[in-house]
Structure formats: structure tokens, C-alpha cells
């Protein structure tokens, strides 16, 4: 049974949180509320999240400051942040959002379908990352216990098979990401699309590098 991803919704207005929950409920994931930047940071101390929807205009610690804290923490720095704002101060304000580490910056009122589609991309990537990490952990255990199996060459063959399966899984994600990038290029070349595509590329490159690093271990297992 696949565990649901957690999505952090940060807004000081309860009606806005309710609206976000209504929009994202169709994704069938776990939605976690936070009514302030401080509350969001507390939630991030204990739980892992696929993506954060962060309101810019909040009393006390605003969205920019909250994002800065998130990006300074090693545990949370790679979590995608989508900024939501009720006002548009122009390019400088938008640039500040991207400079703070956001992968997207959306002005209210926004298209519910577009927001849901953007969030679903990061949820899917998060789920794929979790699956690949679990598979990689199983493979390492298999390699470390290879000498205790007593099956002759069976352990090496099984390890090679697991590695091939992992590579195939990652290739499928890479194919999906490539299709997404082409779709973004066809639709627009705005900063949000570029930032989203770049984030996907960085994550997938890291996963491929980690998977390739396991290759020598398979060959060296007796």
C-alpha cells in the first residue's frame, strides 16, 4: 500500500485554507494546515512534505521570511515551494519570490485546475523519489548480505536484477519529466515554467547519479 504524500498549506486566513483543501482534495493526498510561518516551520520539524503552498502576505513572519528559514534547513531545503499572493507588485515582487527559493509564484484569484495540476507534478515526483529510495535501500541490503545467502551466484544475479528494475523505474520518471518539459516549452517560457522544469531536472539528475554509483558494487559482489 502506497503511503500518501503530505502537502503543507500555509495561510493566515481560514477561508483560504478551506478553499485550498477543496481544490486539492481530488489529489487524494494528506493536506496539513498551518496558519502562520511559525506554525509551518514547526510542522516541517517532524513531517516530510511533497510540496508547500505558502501565502506571501501574512502578519508577523511573512512568506518570504518563512521560505528563507525553510531553505536554510538541510532537512527542508529541497521541498518545492509555491508562493500564493493576493496582490501583484510587478516583476520585482515576483523575482523576490523566486530568489527566496520558490519554484512557482501564483497570483490570486488563480485557476483551480492549474494549481491542482502544478501540485500534482510535485506530488508524483515525491512519490517516485520515495519509491526509488526504498528500492535503493533494499538493493544495498541485498548487496551487503550477498555473502550470507549460500546460493552461489544467485545473490549477484538478484542484485543485478534489482538494479535493472531501479534503472527502469527512474527511466520512466525521466521520460515523464521530458514530456512535461516539452509541454511547458510549447505552452509558455515564463519564469514559473522554467523554474519548475529546472527543479525536476536537478532532482532526476541526483537520482540517476546515485543509482549509477551502485553499479560498481554489483560488479564487485562475489
Task: Describe the protein's architecture and organization.
- It is built from 8 helices and 5 strands, in the order E-H-E-H-E-H-E-H-E-H-H-H-H.
- By secondary structure, it is α/β, with parallel strands linked by helices.
- Helix 3 links the parallel strand 3 and strand 4.
- Helix 2 packs parallel to helix 3 and helix 5 runs antiparallel to helix 6.
- It is elongated.
- The chain starts with 5 loop residues before the first strand and ends with a helix.
- The C terminus is likely disordered.
- This is Two-component system response regulator.
- It comes from Streptomyces flavalbus.
A few lines on this structure:
This protein is an alpha/beta fold and 222 residues long.
List keywords for this structure.
222 residues; disordered C terminus; 60% helix; elongated; 5-stranded parallel β-sheet; alpha/beta; phosphoprotein
Please give the structural blueprint:
Elements: E1 6-10, H1 14-24, E2 30-34, H2 37-46, E3 51-55, H3 63-72, E4 81-85, H4 91-99, E5 104-107, H5 112-144, H6 154-187, H7 191-212, H8 215-219
Parallel strand pairs: 1-2, 1-3, 3-4, 4-5
